[in-house]
Amino acid sequence: MAEGSANNREMFRQGKKTAVVLGYTGETGQALVKQLAKENLFSKEQKVVDFENLEEHRDAFSGHDVGFWCLGTTRAKAGVEGFKRVDHDYVLKSAEMAKAGGLKHLHFMSTMGADHRGMALVLMVNRQESRPMEAIARFLLVPVAKVFPTAITIPVESVAQAMINNAVSDKGKSVETFENKDIHSFFKDVN
C-alpha cells in the first residue's frame, strides 16, 4: 500500500467515522463488510432493516458519515417488479433517508452500463446459490477477463476495495462515476 494511502487510512480511522452498509448479505456486500472489518476504519454497529417498511427504520440511516449501497437482485430471482423495487425504489428511498440523516459520502454500486433494458449483469464471484446461466457466462468470460481485465467483468473484492479506497481518499467531488477500468485502477493504486 502506498505511503499516502496508509496516512489517509490512519487519519480516517482517527476520525471515528461511522458507516452504513446496505446489501451486506449479497456477494459484494459480504466482500465489503469483510474488508471493512479487516481494516477497522469505522466504529462497529449493526441494524437489520425491513425494506418493505423503511420508514420504521429511519433512525438506522441517521448520523453516519459514509454509506455503501450494495443492494441488488436479479430479474430471474425477483421478477421485473421485484427487480425494480430492490434496484431502484429501495436504493432511492434509503439514500433519501440517509441524506436527511446527515450522510456525507455515499458509494452506490450498480451494474456496468446500468439500463432498464440491459442484460449484462456480471460480477466475477463464486456464488453460494446456484445460477447455471451465470456460471456458464463466468466460465466463458474468465479467459476474456485474463486478457482484458477491465473489459466486461470485475471481481466483487475489487469493487469492495475500490469503494473503501474512494471513501478514505474523499476528494470532495459531489458525483463521480467509476467504470470497470476506473475500479481496477483505483483498486491497484493502493494495493
Structural write-up:
The chain has 191 residues and is mostly helical. The chain has one domain (3-189): NAD(P)-binding Rossmann-like Domain (Rossmann fold, 3-Layer(aba) Sandwich). Helix content is 48%, strand content 6%. It has helices at 3-14, 27-39, 75-100, 132-147, 156-169, 180-189, and strands spanning 19-22, 66-69, 105-108. The protein has a three-stranded parallel beta sheet with strand order 1-2-3, covered by helices on one side. Strand 1, helix 2 and strand 2 (66-69) form a beta-alpha-beta unit. The longest helix has 26 residues, at 75-100. It starts with a helix and ends with a helix.
Short description:
With 191 residues, the chain is mainly alpha-helical. The protein has helices spanning 3-14, 27-39, 75-100, 132-147, 156-169, 180-189; strands at residues 19-22, 66-69, 105-108.
